[in-house]
Amino acid sequence: MDFEISERMKIITNMIDEFVDKELIPLEPEFLTRSFRDLLPVLEEKRAAVKKMELWAPNHPREYGGMGLNLVDHALVSESLGRTPIGHYVFGCQAPDAGNIEILYLYGTDEQKEKYLRPLVEGKIRSCFSMTEVDLAGSNPVMMDTTAVKDGDDYVINGQKWYTSSSDGAEFAIVMAKTNPEARPHLQASMIIVPCHTPGFNHVRNIPVMGEAGTDYTGHGEILYQSCRVPRKNLLGPEGHGFVIAQERLGPGRIHHCMRWLGICKRCFDLMCSRASERIITLDGKTLATRQIIQAWIAECAAEISAARLMTLNAAWKIETLGGKEAREDISLIKFFVAGVMQKVVDRALQVHGGLGMTDDIIIPYFYRHERAARIYDGADEVHKIAVARRILRGYEGRRVH
Ligand SMILES: Cc1cc2nc3c(=O)[nH]c(=O)nc-3n(C[C@H](O)[C@H](O)[C@H](O)COP(=O)(O)OP(=O)(O)OC[C@H]3O[C@@H](n4cnc5c(N)ncnc54)[C@H](O)[C@@H]3O)c2cc1C
Fold it and tell me: Which of 225, 238, 278, 402 has the most CB atoms at less than 10 Å from its CB?
């Protein structure tokens, strides 16, 4: 087993770490106190600098202007960028665009690629992914009310979605809607590209999430599709294959998320250790770091981060070498395990900071608020645990172990 990181990736991640430290972390006080939309001009400058350094769109295809890194290498990049909430955006590999780019690349027609994929990779436009519905359990998305009915050369879409992340200011949405209600449940829905300026695409609001509605890229939209008409050529992939394509989107996406969460762990762990080492808690000058309970937290966090990291890189390697299907169990394992490790590390880092840990003078509470969702999106913890346990238990059916 070879754990060696290539010289090229060492250079790339060092460059990214330096950029994050010097150019992005200093922007965080503004990020925490102003709207994302206000920050766009300065973020655009940073994006231009990243392009100049030839580090733009690390995971996206070379032919469209990306670096074309494989999944394992991009996992390392995602970890470095995850240390700040603006990292992925500034380097052009943010969700949900990253997932949309993957499926447009795999399933898009030549026309769709030129119109949507190319400007998306170049960072000229943004997109969103619109599947979850307000009134139905997103954990079982085959229960879907949104319909896309054929009418001449068009589809007419009706339905109500929410958590269409980053819809505010996006150029287009990839919408999941039922096109084939007579088919088996997993073959009823299709993916359709819907430009956000289409009449009938109604952006109702950015949902307030943990006290913040967000703007532009940081918003999570509620969308009402009312007789929203788009040409049938906007169908992405085969009709009725929406869930099949969605599966493709989720495997690598979970690796990106998990490594981003590990970047968050690293940042919070560094802050925790630094604070513990300097915070004096006794009259004779002893620091928090002298206390065994804090030392135990630090050791436990270090072990769990390391375990989570190895599991994630292993899952990335499996996807890369054996394919997504073979790696399904590993993907489910990391999805709930890494999300849990991150929540624990963020919580302990916050605790070590005491009252300061509750203020937006530091980044930890931002992670605490916004990353709670990691245990819900892309499959809630429970759904992944059930899937893994079922697969494991299948191996024991009719087999007694002595
Ligand atoms: C920050 C954020 C961003 C998101 N971005 C997007 C996006 O860009 N596009 C999009 O389409 N959606 C997005 N989502 C929606 C997300 O995919 C759904 O919230 C998720 O699929 C869960 O669906 P639900 O909210 O309807 O919860 P439900 O399906 O109602 O589930 C509620 C809870 O029930 C439990 N549960 C569910 N099923 C089972 C089961 N079988 N067994 C045991 N327990 C179970 C879990 O604890 C789960 O958290 C986002 C969500 C969040 C929070």
Answer: 225
Pocket lining: 138 vs ligand 1, CB cutoff 6 Å: yes
CA of 378 to the centre of ligand 1 (A): 7
Q: What are the residue ranges spanned by the domains of the chain? A: 7-121, 127-236, 244-394
Residue 128 alpha carbon to ligand 1 centre in Å: 17
Ligand 1 touching residue 380 (CB < 6 A): yes
271 phi-psi bin (left φ>0, alpha ψ -120 to 50, beta other): alpha
Q: How far is the CA of 195 from the centre of ligand 1 (A)?
A: 25
Assign domain 244-394 to its CATH superfamily.
Answer: Butyryl-CoA Dehydrogenase, subunit A, domain 3 (1.20.140.10)
CATH topology assigned to domain 7-121: Butyryl-Coa Dehydrogenase, subunit A; domain 1 (1.10.540)
- Which has the closest alpha carbon to 188: 235, 242, 151, 136? 242
The reported pTM is 0.97
Helix and strand numbers (H, E) in the chain are 13, 8
Nearest CA to ligand 1 atom 25: 138
